[in-house]
Amino acid sequence: TLTPNIDTLAGRGTVFTNAHCQSPLCNPSRTSLMTGRRPGSTGIYGLAPWFRTVPGLQDLVTLPQYLARHGNYHTAMTGKIYHGGYGRQSRGEHVEWDEVGPGASGKPFPPKKLVNTPQPHRLVDWGTFPHKDEDKGDHIVASWAVDKLKSYAASSQDKPLFLATGFFLPHVPCYATQKWMDLHPLDRLQLPAVQPNDRADTPRFSWYLHWKLPEPRLKFLKDADEWENLTQAYLACTTFVDAQVKRLSDTLRETGLEKNTIVVLWSDHGWHIGEKEITGKNTLWDDGTRVPLIFAGPGITAGQVCTRPAELLDLYPTLVDLLDLPENKTLEGHSLVPQLKDAQAPRPWPAITTHNHDNHGIRTEKWRYIRYADGSEELYDMEKDPHEWNNLAASVSHEAKKRELAKWLPNRNLKPVPKSAHRILTHDPETGKTTWQGEPIKPGDPIPELQ
Q1: 125 and which of 133, 173, 175, 451 could share a cystine (Cβ 3.0–4.6 Å)?
Q2: CA-to-CA distance for 394 and 171, rounded, in angstroms?
Q3: What pLDDT digit, counting tens, does each position of 23-46 carry?
């Protein structure tokens, strides 16, 4: 198995197989989860800015702050919780963490890039080179978290502990030592399922969401004979992180903390490795939005698989509910406690993902509906077409289904906040003008790296 230790965690809890991020990009996704608000409610769509610098958002009470204020929790974090270094240096009433451990890192790096990608971004790289597992950022982060758990177990434990541990991998650069690569030999590799001309029935506007990005297209991977190598490196990095999860799980069990600890495992967005002709994130299809989500611990039914739509936005209210703290009525998500008790419990809400202003994906158990800012649409029957290869949006017989799903489109769609930057797409419906990173995209412009 690819992730034996995460599988073990799932076995002693409830795993959500239809969980989705609120934005397929690090900063807006993590901002949404930690504040309990959708991107359209904050105006945070890009990798910048940090929400604490935005007028009107500075005083939002985040998950760790709420646990500290209402449950007297000692809060600690290490690795990637917010995007980049955000959230590590909060001051005054905006302090998020009582303790801050080592930051996230994809290091060590080789002396130079291993793969000559079309956009020469240092982080968009993969492969193996001589280095030690102990020097990897995620190993260092796990070591700090293990030490924190051990010291807490040996203490008087007069305060409950909230520990946030954020692993960097399998985000690019996907560097792994040879022993992890050897677990996924090329001759046994299963490449992602793709369909030739998969984008023939998707709107041109779908390309605008990932117009000019460092992550290469599938065309490059095939032309450069790198598709297998990237897939192998991604899997190797995933298995490496699984081993770090084992270190934390073992520590919880060995210290006796496990019986009174709620564990939540999640990721901030999905990742394409060739599906829909691209790599990376920044899409409203399942490959871009679907995330792992596992809850295990007291009050949670073990061995359950829940197929109801769930959102990362639900994590904040779910923990507040599980910990029996006062309800935070400002949150936009919904507690998953009914599903944690019974995976078959009904759930009326779909999962909603937004990428940049006014581009939305609606995901139910059976359907995915996408509406782009220019009004173009996609519709997929996820039971019959799990790879989203057959866009039904133009089908007359599906008009009623589109109308039904469109009722879930968010009512609140704030424009990007001032100083929004990095992967910002805007569309003016009155003029029809679309801009990527401030530069206009014209209707006849060739699709970068393809045409």
Answers
A1: 173
A2: 35
A3: 999 999 999 999 999 999 999 999
Q: What angle do CA 332, 337, 341 make, to 5 degrees?
A: 160
Distance CA 45, CA 417 (A): 8
Cα 386 from Cα 222, distance rounded (Å) = 24
Residue closest to 412 by CA, chosen among 363, 352, 353, 358: 358
Residues forming the active site = 26, 83
- pLDDT band at 85, cuts 50/70/90? confident
Residue 253 within any structural domain of the chain = yes
Rounded-to-integer distance, Cα 114 and Cα 170, Å = 17
Domain assignment present for 293: yes
Q: Strand pairing of 439-441 and 433-436?
A: antiparallel
Beta strand 360-363 with 272-273 is: unpaired
DSSP output for 149-213: HHHHHTS---S-EEEEEE--TTSSSEE--HHHHTTS-GGG--PPP--TTGGGGS-THHHHTTSS-
The range of the structural domain enclosing residue 77 comes to 4-354
For 408-422, the pLDDT digits (tens) are 999 999 999 999 999
Is residue 435 in some structural domain? Answer: no
Tens digit of pLDDT for each residue in 146-194? 999 999 999 999 999 999 999 999 999 999 999 999 999 999 999 999 9
Residue among 295, 231, 226, 236 at smallest CA distance from 263: 295
Residue 404's H or E segment, with its range, is helix 399-406
Query: 87: which residues sit within 8 A by CB, 6+ positions away?
Result: 34, 50, 52, 77, 81, 96, 97
Tokens 């302090």 correspond to 95
Helix (H) or strand (E) holding 331: none
From the CB of residue 282, how many other CB atoms can be counted at a distance below 10 Å? Answer: 21
How many Cβ atoms from other residues are within 10 Å of residue 376's Cβ?
15
The enclosing domain of 320 has a CATH number of 3.40.720.10
Q: Tokens 């003029």 appear where?
A: 431
pLDDT score recorded for residue 90: 67
Of 217, 196, 80, the closest CA to residue 142 belongs to 80
Q: Name, in order, each residue with C-beta under 8 angstroms of 384's C-beta and a sequence gap of 6 or more.
A: none
The full length of the chain comes to 451
Q: What angle do CA 333, 337, 342 make, to 5 degrees?
A: 130
Give the total number of structural domains in the chain.
1
In Å, what is the CA distance from 112 to each residue of 71, 92, 124, 125, 169?
A: 48, 41, 12, 10, 19
pTM: 0.97
